[in-house]
Automatic annotation (TrEMBL):
Residues 160-181 are annotated as: Disordered. GO terms for molecular function: electron transfer activity; heme binding; metal ion binding. Residues 160-171 have a biased composition (Polar residues). Keywords: Heme, Iron, Membrane, Metal-binding, Signal, Transmembrane, Transmembrane helix. CDD domains: Cytochrom_C3 (cd08168). The keyword Heme applies. InterPro entries: Cyt_c-like_dom, Cyt_c-like_dom_sf, Cyt_c7-like, Multihaem_cyt_sf. Residues 1-28 form the signal peptide. The chain crosses the membrane at residues 195-218, 249-268. This is C-type cytochrome. Residues 66-157 form the Cytochrome c domain.
Length: 448
């Protein structure tokens, strides 16, 4: 009888653990069963009525409740990450969009903004440049769905975006446009689940410790009895041999495989990183601050780097450019005196180059800045905030190719591209005319 009780103790602990785990999982499934929103919009079960509504969506500026509700759902699923109705987020506030642009412009813009920008549309190009040349993704939405979104936006114009001040009863945080009562419920449920799981873990630990103590007490009591047979004594005195674990062939094989995989992973990562210097930040011979000059004093980059728009490379400024200011400004500074000494000795300042490309790659700086209109920060990062400059971008071939694939080519006013763009649009439809479309990813463009 006693041996049976002892043998059943591990089974009891295992059953208790599995019961608690199953209970916690069932609670998690119950709490997390709210309808989800997909990348394309609201999940099918949440948009069954919305789809029907969009079929009869009215023109912007009005609309029935069903169409506006459909637009609300579509907006939250596709637009709320970057836009709000009355506030600027990543992109512009959408209030008054129908007064600024007609629907015949809005629909193509939502479907493929890159193509509209590449076409040279003045408003599109201005918007693209105004918001840091951030490309809005293309959306596979129908004309009716876009019209529903605009109808919802129009219905919300001028309304406060406080916690409880939205026509549809949704909680929209200022500058967000995507907070709903379901978000608060999900957040509360998440906090509740965290507390519940912690309590369950603590209870399980207490139960395990309690059962271990009881088992030890039972063993001590049974050791004092003289009516136990040999099998009972064997169970009471048994000890787990931990040496069997590390002496096990299977365990040693698993450890060996994990070790080999870890070494192989680190070796591959090290090999892939050869030649990459992203984050490289050497100490310069003179403590020059781009944050002070380009940031606080707003000195244009081209004032010091005079060939940035007209040469293959952006030159390092000579000492006489520094002296245009520092012959009068901060003349007693120890760092400025280093410039004086270089001039007196007729020696160049030994600046340490940060951005290096391999000799096998051809790169033309003016082609990107003058012709392509690329801003300095696109490749060099927030240079105006750097006390000490570092390499911001990876400058790898893949990084360059991705940029060429994604950047639309500005062909406006250049007749050279007219036929190319026409042929491209005929063959590729809605795909924008990018640098890659013009041969910008051909090997011979950079390797010759």
């Amino acid at each position: 009888m006693n041996s049976i009780r002892l043998r059943s103790l591990p089974h009891l602990l295992l059953a208790l653990f599995l019961t608690l785990a199953a209970y916690g999982q069932s609670l998690a499934q119950t709490v997390g069963s709210a309808p989800a929103v997909s990348k394309e919009g609201v999940a099918p079960d949440a948009t069954a009525g919305a789809t029907a509504a969009t079929a009869t969506a009215p023109a912007a500026g009005g609309g029935d409740a069903a169409a506006i509700a459909a637009g609300d759902a579509l907006f939250k699923g596709n637009c709320a990450q970057c836009h709000a109705v009355n506030d600027v987020v990543v992109g512009p506030a959408l209030a008054g969009i129908t007064k600024r642009r007609p629907m015949s412009w809005i629909i193509p813009w939502v479907k493929n903004s890159s193509k509209v920008v590449a076409s040279g549309d003045e408003y599109a190009v201005k918007l693209f440049n105004q918001y840091g040349k951030q490309q809005m993704p293309s959306f596979q939405l129908s004309d009716q769905e876009i019209t529903s979104i605009v109808a919802w936006v129009t219905s919300q114009e001028g309304k406060a975006t406080g916690p409880n001040d939205n026509a549809n009863g949704t909680n929209i945080a200022p500058g967000d446009g995507s907070k709903t009562p379901g978000d608060d419920a999900a957040a509360g449920a998440g906090s509740y689940m965290n507390v519940l799981l912690i309590v369950l873990v603590v209870v399980l630990i207490v139960l395990v410790v309690t059962l271990v103590i009881i088992a030890n007490i039972m063993k001590d009591v049974l050791r004092g009895r003289k009516d136990l047979d040999g099998r009972d004594v064997e169970i009471i005195e048994q000890r787990f041999d931990y040496s069997k674990i590390y002496k096990s062939t299977a365990v040693r094989a698993i450890v060996g495989v994990v070790f080999v995989l870890a070494v192989l992973y680190e070796s591959v990562q090290g090999a892939m990183g050869v030649g990459l210097q992203q984050g490289y930040q050497p100490t310069q011979p003179i403590a020059f601050s781009h944050k002070l000059h380009a940031g606080e004093n707003q000195i244009n980059c081209a004032y010091c780097h005079t060939s940035v728009y007209k040469s293959k490379s952006a030159n390092i400024p000579s000492a006489n450019i520094c002296m245009n200011c520092h012959s009068q400004v901060k003349t007693e500074s120890p760092e400025i005196k280093k410039i004086y000494r270089a001039i007196e000795r007729k020696q160049p300042i030994q600046w340490v180059r940060i951005h290096n490309l391999p000799d096998l790659a051809y790169f033309n700086h003016s082609q990107h800045t003058q012709v392509g209109g690329i801003e300095c920060q696109t490749c060099h990062g927030p240079i105006q905030n750097m006390e000490v400059v570092y390499q911001y971008s990876p400058l790898t071939m893949g990084w360059c190719i991705n940029c060429h694939r994604e950047t639309p080519l500005n062909t406006k006013g250049n007749a050279y591209y007219d036929n190319l763009v026409k042929l491209h649009d005929t063959k590729n439809g809605a795909v924008p005319f990018t640098v890659s479309s013009n041969g910008g990813t051909e090997c011979s463009k950079c390797h010759y």
